[in-house]
Amino acid sequence: MTQRIIVAAALLACGCNRPREKPAPVAVEPPRYFKIDPGETGTLEGKVLFRGKKVAGRRLSMDTEEACQAMHKTPVFDEPVQTGKDGGLANVFVYVKSGLEGKVFAPAEDPAVLEQRGCLYLPRVLGLRVGQTLAVRNADPVSHNVHPKPRNNRDWNQQQAPQAPDLLRRFARPEVMIPVRCDVHGWMKAYIGVVDHPFFAVTSTAGGFALPALPPGEYTIAVWHEVLGQKTAPASVKKGAEGRLEFVYQ
User: Fold this and answer.
1) Residue 174: pLDDT band by 50, 70, 90 thresholds?
2) What CATH code would you report for 106-196?
3) Which CATH class is domain 37-55+82-100+200-250?
């Protein structure tokens, strides 16, 4: 009996020392991106206008940071409602809100840049894709504290010294919009719109926008302004055609 136990134990020990077989690798299917054929698409253009009394800007006080104040020879004003000729409204984020469901687009390769210059964020409104690199740049001789405040993405807050390398961050989920502040200089503000497709734009002082190379279909187009809020409108895009939209804020 004792000899049998010894033999069994030896066999068990030999079994334990055998190399385990590695599991077969699981084949991962590459993502299937929607291919945009320029010959099969249309373009959507339009304007965002402001009708009403011109909204006066608020003079910014940079007294707390002498270096910031020294970079400006004239007073600096905060103008959230910035208009141009014929009432064109600037800094409006325009994007496809619905109509692209089920389509997955290849990721953006180039980073979107948010610059700190003259103790201001430039541009004031910025659009980027889910997973696209956001490069935050400090062109000032003072330190800033970059603090996006998302609701649907991870919050982060980081100091950036003068001439420091760009801060490189990404947002994992769509979100319109994400406010950005500097915790050192409270007057600095910007807004980031994150979407999961390439069809977005930011208006200039002329109020114009263009969404080129849209696949034919029925869409809901949304416009967002930091003070005046959001508006939506339906849009039909046909192959080879150019559609137009106009949004008016009062």
Assistant:
1) very high
2) 2.60.40.420
3) mainly beta
The DSSP bridge partners found for residue 211 are 44
* 20 contacts: CB under 8 Å, gap ≥ 6: none
CA gap 136, 210 in Å, rounded? 26
- Comparing 204 with 15, the larger pLDDT belongs to 204
Task: Give the global pTM.
Answer: 0.86
Count of CB atoms situated within 10 Å of the CB of 152: 12
- CB neighbours (10 Å) of residue 150? 18
**One-letter identity of residue 67:** A
Where along the chain do its domains lie? 37-55+82-100+200-250, 106-196
Write out the two tokens for 94. Answer: 């325009």
Asked if domains 37-55+82-100+200-250 and 106-196 share a fold, the reply is yes
pLDDT in tens, 82-108: 999 889 999 999 999 999 999 999 999
* Maximum pairwise Cα distance, the chain: 104
Residue 243, both tokens: 């559609």
